[in-house]
Amino acid sequence: MRRVVITGIGTVNALAADVPGTFEAMRKGDCGIGPLAFRDADRLTIRIGAEVRDWTPEQRFAAGNLPLYDRVTQYALVAGAEAVAMSGLPADLGPRGGVILGTAAGGIQTWEDSYRAVFAEGRNRVSPLVVPRLMHNAPASHLSIRHGLTGPVLAVSSACASANHAMGLALQQIRTGGADVMLTGGAEAMLCFGGVKAWEGLRVLAPDACRPFSLGRKGMVIGDGAGVLVLEAEEHARARGARVLAEVAGIGMTADAGDIVAPSAEGAARAMRAALADAGMGLDEVGYINAHGTGTLANDRAETAAIRAIFADPPPVSSTKAMHGHAIGATGALEAIACVLALTEGILPPTVGFQTPDPDCALDVVPNQARAATVRAALSNAFAFGGLNAVLAFRQG
Amino acid sequence: MTGRAEIEQAVIAILAQQLLLPPEDIAADARIDDLGLDSLGKVEAIFALEERFDIQVPFNANEPDQPDFDFSSVPRIVAGVERLIAQRVA
Q1: Domain ranges of chain B
Q2: Is the ipTM of this complex over 0.95?
Q3: Do B62 and A297 count as a contact with CB atoms less than 8 A apart?
């Protein structure tokens, strides 16, 4: 079985529209959450989110292509370009390269705009590009077109675990020889009126701030963005002299087969154990866990129980969602990038917004300030609605 | 004005629908936890109350003590809905 490494990363999120800016924000413990600025936000009960700020697509894309790109695709393309440039990928990968990208809501803004036109404004037709814009595979397909990748290309949708599932499947594609290089991660652009309205109904969004694992937390805060990672067979990367950032060592995927929304500590723990086993990783190797850490009562308690069921003495655990928001189907990719920060630069990104320890969440959550630490290996958790769990294990390259 | 009896009847009917019970099986002083309503049932019941009375119920599933809206029993819910209707009219 081939070893798989990360040779490039790219991102657009509420903290910054690139990796250096995101790393800097994570070092400083910045928070990307603020008042929502999109159309009709004044009709919402929840009015905060981690939006991508100052986004000017007309400056980033050719006028002829832009009508094809929902924001979810725009974020994926910008993140993908950064990752590919960092990796120095050859242009002629063709069938040896592919894309597996996660998204939960796909082109939801495009759905919203077209429905508004026909239902609310009484129009009789919508743009002929609505379908190719809104389809869940649009970001993956445009990445394949842009970078000439003609191997396996598909989208993965498993709510908040989409990006972790996508990266896990990309890992398996390379291990088993289906491709040498995969662009993978996730993209999401759910911060629009209909997207937030839908989440409001579940009564799990915080009106004030995201405070994972802290007493006084009031729920999750949605974010937008994309993270794209270049995964590559190690021998392929070494042969071309690429810089190896980290190893993607294992994936664990489980389903609770229980409640459609309530999390299960047992299902989460099984996924973490499966990732460790797949990676051949000992508990003593793990120096950092990037938590799912949504800031809801239910997740944070169940996740703490899962971690404590595995680790008698858990390593530091932080939730970067308090900085970049819960980017739903992209969040696992942003969090994988946070793990790369820990592995390559020895920086544990903090859990910002933390106020008071919760006895039900007895973990070292790296509160509010980043910390220097040598991290040999890290886990990244994702536990989705639908009872779907996907945990990645990373090692120093 | 919407009377207390009418609100109580509606609260019980909405809970009954979520619990798949006949309304007469829900006592006027029933406690919600004793009825076995799960978290999704709770938010669906609150949605139904908002639609029925054109109110906004300040309920966040992440605040166990629910400082803004007491959802612990039928009488507390009725009192909360009464208050929200009065605020709306005012």
Answers
A1: 4-89
A2: no
A3: yes
